[in-house]
Design goal:
By secondary structure, this protein is an all-alpha fold. The chain is built from twelve helices and no strands.
Length: about 325
């Protein structure tokens, strides 16, 4: 009986071992696979653009603005285009084609001295957009540099604060007027005048954000490990500032165009020979009360309004998309 029981136990153990060999395997240590489990394929910019694409209106306006900018550059090379500065003469009367309403020959009509409004509006849009983008880029470069140093370096906090107080208390309108009087009227004069005080708001916003972020644990740990300050700013702080930078930049473009319109309105803008949205709106403003000539104000005003609204919506949408808190 005992031998029979032992035989049964041996058979049972063999069957269990065979079953275990089929169902289970011994685990082996693989350092490469262990590292892969901690790997994340997260990309900041890929997540930003993925979030931005969800806003269909902003995507449509972005495509529209890109198309508008491209059209302003290719418009002079299209067939049957007229010069924005040439004064056109009526072949039958020998007189200037003054204040001609929109027709087949003049799509947007002509102005008071016989210049084609269609070509002048697109030339003016190109000029105004150049001013707007130049001012926005310069403001971002100066504002980010000053704001980063202002918020991150405690040694520079006091002198930059005093500089901010001085510049911020100078009215922007006075700076624009003085620069227009001191320098020769032109595109460079307007850009310089707008950038003298335009970087202040950008620097202040960025400084406030950096003060909030600079003493967080991961930044303190990086500083303790000897990471240079510029790397901490670029790697740890910049992703959280992109939303603020893009929002301020998108608002700076229409603001610069509006300032150019204001300078032209008070007679200190670009020369009349240099088409711009400010010049065109100022010329149309004089004819606003004449119903037959009101088109000279309506067309450039529509272009300016579309650009302003588009940049505002695109800037807000991209600012939301660039915020890491909205990345899932």
């Amino acid at each position: 009986m005992g031998l029979f029981t032992k035989e049964i136990q041996n058979i049972s153990e063999k069957s269990n071992n065979q079953l275990n060999d089929h169902l289970f395997e011994f685990a082996t240590v693989d350092d490469a696979k262990a590292e892969e489990t901690a790997y994340s394929n997260y990309s900041y910019w890929r997540s930003t653009f993925r979030s931005f694409r969800k806003n269909k209106i902003a995507v449509f306006l972005l495509i529209f603005v890109i198309g508008l900018i491209l059209f302003t550059f290719i418009q002079p090379y299209l067939p049957d285009q007229k010069s924005p500065t040439q004064i056109y003469i009526n072949a039958e009367t020998g007189m200037q084609d003054r204040n001609v309403a929109p027709n087949d020959e003049y799509i947007f009509g002509t102005n008071s001295i016989g210049q084609d409004l269609w070509s002048r509006i697109w030339e003016g849009t190109r000029t105004s957009l150049f001013i707007g983008f130049a001012v926005a880029i310069i403001e971002v470069i100066i504002g980010f540099s000053v704001g980063a140093l202002w918020g991150y370096s405690r040694k520079l906090e006091m002198p930059i604060t005093q500089l901010y107080n001085i510049v911020d208390n100078i009215p922007t309108t006075i700076v624009l007027i003085l620069m227009a009087y001191i320098l020769r009227p032109g595109i460079s004069t307007i850009i310089i005048a707008m950038c003298i005080t335009g970087w202040v708001e950008m620097a202040r916003f960025l400084r406030n954000q950096i003060v909030i972020l600079r003493d967080r644990e991961y930044n303190l740990a990086s500083k303790t490990l000897g990471t240079p300050g510029y790397k901490i700013i670029i790697k740890n702080l910049l992703p959280y500032l992109i939303s603020v930078i893009m929002l301020r930049m998108s608002l700076a473009v229409p603001a610069a165009i509006g300032a150019e319109v204001f300078l032209t309105y008070i007679g200190l803008g670009l020369p009349v020979s240099e088409p711009s949205l400010g010049n065109l709106i100022n010329e149309g403003r004089v004819l606003m009360m004449s119903p037959d000539l009101r088109y000279q104000l309506i067309f450039p005003s529509i272009v300016l309004s579309v650009i302003t609204i588009a940049f505002y919506i695109i800037g807000n949408a991209f600012a939301d998309a660039a915020d890491p808190k909205n990345h899932v």
